[in-house]
Design brief:
alpha/beta, Protocatechuate 3,4-Dioxygenase, subunit A, six-stranded mixed beta sheet, 14 strands, binds benzoic acid, binds fe (iii) ion, Intradiol_RC_Dioxygenase, Intradiol_dOase_core, catechol 1,2-dioxygenase activity, EC 1.13.11.1, ferric iron binding
């Protein structure tokens, strides 16, 4: 194991605001997570987690200096406010895989750290809030229908949609952006249909200037996620799906740092005579 040193890479662009990690930590802390896990189940999970870590230490013959570097790194992740970032990049996809075992409808994907509840409610045909500079980017018109497993349209379903701007910044986590930029809650019409205009997202680089970046570098990895839209689709009496949509032929699709792509979640828009990218995607919700 090499010594992990503090590293600031000025050569790589770092599109996420320096404070995004701590903003994500503050948001998470305010929500105060709970789970109805029994004490017995919790004890079994904790025991196995420790045992897995012990096995890694024994297998690799981890030394005391390496152990102390590990301790320092864990402290740095916490002090840098990077636990939501680190966990959602490297761990969340496995939890999502467990959830996916029990579902038949649209495939899910990770939520990531940048969801904010209560985005402005928008009608079934609408444009996401965006700044004048965002309007320079290729528009994306994303239409479809929300249905149940039998194909019945779900009126009044909601699509919470959020994504990064062309520079990789998420509103609420980058102080220069207006709140709710590129975020909205779209309500489907009487047939469950919607048509949302936004902009074509760009690939997104997770912050590289802290301990998560050091971890990626230590693995000889890269910090990129393919361009994506985030969605939570919900309807009364149905199980909500948290997912992401990606773009055919997009960079990093086969090596997403967050391991969160699925073939069923790839859009293939076509450019219309109006110069906008157009695509249809339908969502299917499981019963609650
Ligand atoms: C995301 O925005 O998709 C994301 C960011 C950091 C960690 C995981 C996902
Ligand atoms: Fe994202």
């Amino acid at each position: 194991m090499t010594t992990i040193e503090t590293h600031t890479d000025t050569a790589l662009p770092s599109p996420t605001a320096a404070g995004s990690g701590s903003a994500a930590t503050d948001k998470f802390k305010n929500e105060r997570a709970t789970a109805d896990t029994s004490p017995e189940r919790l004890a079994a999970i904790a025991k196995d987690a420790l045992s897995a870590l012990h096995n890694v230490i024994l297998e690799h013959g981890v030394t005391y200096p390496e152990y102390r570097v590990f301790k320092q790194w864990l402290i740095d992740v916490g002090e840098g406010g990077e636990w939501p970032l680190f966990l959602d990049v490297f761990i969340e996809h496995a939890v999502e895989e467990v959830l996916a075992r029990s579902r038949k409808g649209t495939k899910g994907s990770i939520e990531g750290p940048y969801y904010v509840a209560n985005a402005p409610i928008l009608p079934s045909v609408s444009t996401l809030p965006m700044r004048a500079e965002d309007r320079e980017i290729t528009p994306l018109v994303f239409a479809g229908q929300v249905t149940d497993l039998d194909g019945n349209g779900l009126a009044g379903a909601s699509l919470e949609l959020w994504h990064a701007d062309n520079d990789g910044y998420y509103s609420h986590f980058a102080p220069h952006l207006p709140d709710w930029n590129l975020r909205g809650t779209i309500i489907t019409d009487e047939d469950g249909r919607y048509e949302i205009t936004t902009i074509q997202p760009a690939p997104y680089q997770i912050p590289t200037d802290g301990p998560t970046g050091q971890f990626i570098e230590a693995q000889n990895g890269h910090p990129w996620r393919p361009a994506h839209l985030h969605l939570i689709v919900s309807a009364p009496g149905k199980e909500s799906v948290t997912t992401q949509l990606y773009f055919a032929g997009g960079e990093w699709l086969d090596s997403d740092v967050a391991s969160a792509t699925k073939p069923e979640l790839i859009l293939d828009p076509t450019t219309g005579d109006d110069g906008k990218n157009h695509v249809t995607y339908n969502f299917v919700l499981d019963p609650a």
